[in-house]
Structure formats: structure tokens, C-alpha cells
Amino acid sequence: MDRELDQINVIPLVDVMLVLLVIVLTTATFITTGQIPVDLAKAKEAGDRKDVPLVITLTADGRLFMNEQPVSDDGLKILLTPHPKDSLVVVRADRVIMLERFVEVVDEVRGLGFRQVSLEVVRL
Questions:
Q1: What is the pTM of this model?
Q2: CATH number, position 47
Q3: What domain range includes position 81?
């Protein structure tokens, strides 16, 4: 008994598409958050700049990174010196970081002549 195939079985297609969707969404979250986990503070107003800034990250345990590269306590001056003073510097600080440590880093950056220093936050 030969029966003609008059319908397409879409269940395997839906299964494959759902798996692909999960993979894309999972990898997209890793790409957008970066490699250094920082729980950013929240703010109602946040700027949207398009130029590439110098990113300084302060983690919850007090470690310091510049553009995702670890920096020693006295190495920030060495890494920032070759950059033009009109460059934008963005500080990504974990919200539980001690205020004193944050102020020390911003003060050091401003002391090197950088005037465009901003804090990265998450918009509410």
C-alpha cells in the first residue's frame, strides 16, 4: 500500500530551531556582559556614547583591570600614559566596591590629565 506523502512533518524542524535559539541566546549573553563579572550600579539616566573608551574595571574583591587585562596597583599610570589625554575613560565598578577604592582610581586617572572620566551603570 503506497501512500503519498502530502504533509511535511514539522516537529523535528521546530525542535532544531528551539535548540539553535537557546544556543544563540546563551552565547549572546556571554558576549554582551564581557569576561570580567561586575555587578554594575543602576541609574535612571545613562549616556550612550559611540566612541571606543578606555575601560577600567574594579571587581568586588578589589582587583583592577584595564580593557580586560589585569593591572597591578601601580601599573595603571604606566598603561594610561601613552594614551591621549582627551580619551574617554569609563570606570566599571562593582556596586559593592568600597567607595574609597573607587575614588582612589578616579583620582589617579584624573591626576594623569584625563578629564572625560565616567562611570558605567545599568539603566533601570
A1: 0.60
A2: 3.30.420.270
A3: 42-123
